[in-house]
Amino acid sequence: MTEAPLIEMRNATVWRGSTRALHRFSLSIGQHERVAILGPNGAGKTTLLKTITRELRHAPDDDSRVSILGRERWNVWELRKHIGLVSHELQAEFTPYASVFDVVVSGFFSSIGLDDRLRARVRPRHREQTQEIMRELEIDVLADRAYRDLSTGQQRRCLLGRALIHDPHTLIFDEPTAGLDLAATFDFLARVRQWARNGRSLVWVTHHLNDIPPEVERVIILKNGEIVSDGSKASVLTAECLSDVYETNLRVTEVDGHILAYPGAA
Ligand SMILES: Nc1ncnc2c1ncn2[C@@H]1O[C@H](COP(=O)(O)OP(=O)(O)OP(=O)(O)O)[C@@H](O)[C@H]1O
């Protein structure tokens, strides 16, 4: 039996308020692919991710279809066991009282932190798994600290822990290195690369080419809610393609699997 794709979209239009963020959009991403999604501000990248995680729905046109892991209908909480999300947007959403432990364990409940009702549902196995993940990410010593008081790099590791708690086969990252310094960026990347090498799938949205994990094989570029380029990393991340998309003269080079862009001649 062939494996259902992670996402299969056909002619999907997604509105954000009165803005048509994706327009009759078609895309298929397989379950074991490692994909980066790039594009200028407002291109529709976050909208696409939120469509995959079912935070957003497409307009129900007759010939449109969006299926995730082979199903058109999902209980969002069930879906989150299969797909972990790390988004810099989540960073500001935890209450000032949430501890590091609360943030990571809340992944079990697909909640943003714990309220009293959820805290009563934390079982010994949740605690054990949370402690194991915190140890792996070297945030176990911070378990009781207030999440809000940590550095951005430590906070991002907490979000990674929260996303990994169900050991999902797919991780989705929305600008995961935003706000991180160089050391924290490369630390975060090293952790993700280790996880990706174990055969899991990755969907990585970024503005920074050199943050794209070398394990990424496919790159999709969006602009104005449409795909303008989709193919192997080598075929898409060219000076010609990027200069065209960003409407500026760029050059591109590769170092140890990392792609770097820099300004072309004026
Ligand atoms: N909550 C919202 N309400 C109304 N319009 C929105 C909302 N969120 C996004 N949009 C609009 O939808 C379009 C796509 O936005 P989206 O955030 O998906 O783009 P993006 O590629 O992720 O951008 P960025 O790189 O700036 O994060 C943009 O025109 C944006 O202004």
From TrEMBL:
This is ATP-binding cassette domain-containing protein. GO terms for molecular function: ATP binding; ATP hydrolysis activity. Gene3D superfamilies: P-loop containing nucleotide triphosphate hydrolases (3.40.50.300). The keyword Metal-binding does not apply. Residues 7-249 form the ABC transporter domain. Keywords: ATP-binding, Nucleotide-binding, Transport. InterPro entries: AAA+_ATPase (IPR003593), ABC_transporter-like_ATP-bd (IPR003439), Metal_Ion_Import_ABC (IPR050153), P-loop_NTPase (IPR027417). It comes from the Bacteria. It comes from Elongatibacter sediminis.
